[in-house]
Structures are given as structure tokens and as C-alpha cells.
Write a structure and sequence with these properties.
Blueprint lengths: L9 E11 L5 H12 L2 E6 L5 E8 H12 L7 E9 L8 E3 L3
Parallel strand pairs: 2-5
Antiparallel strand pairs: 1-3, 1-4, 2-3
Helix pairs in contact: 1-2
Amino acid sequence: RYTSGMVDQQKSVELTLSGQVVGVGLRQWTQMTATQVGVAGWVRNNLDRTVTIHAEGPTETVDAFVERLRRPRLEAVRVDDVQVRDIEAHGYSGFSVEWN
């Protein structure tokens, strides 16, 4: 396979998920999935019953992670909307569940 020798492009996004996303195991599933695919960042519940996720890593990996979040494989979860915005990377080395 031909490669150009360029380093993978990096991407950093913040997502806000709404629907039935709080109290259903989504944060733990998100952490597990991020660790499996190699995305760094964090996930947290918000007071308005949405979930915010910061994800960074290679562009293709982050894009695939975002697609998984649109349809998580959790029976009790229902994602109605996913807002995605590009943000500046913070250089996280792992993926954590934030508690507020």
C-alpha cells in the first residue's frame, strides 16, 4: 500500500447528545468504546440531561467514534440528536468519565 509519509491528520470535537442518554450506562459505554478505538478525551452528564463528550485523535478514528455514538448498542439508550462542533485539541492521553 502506498503511503505519503504524512502523519495522520488529528481531529478534536465536542459532542452533545440528547434523548434518553442519562442514567442508562452511556458514559461507561462511551469510555469503553473510546478506549477500544483509540480516542482520547472525556464524557460527562449535564444538568439539562444531555451528555457532553470531548473526543480527539486521528480524523478517521474520531469520525468512526462519532458514528458509533449516533447509534450506541445499549438497549435503554435513545439518542435523538447529536450536535458536533470542532474544537481545539487538549492533548489527552486516555478517556475518562467526568463526574459533576
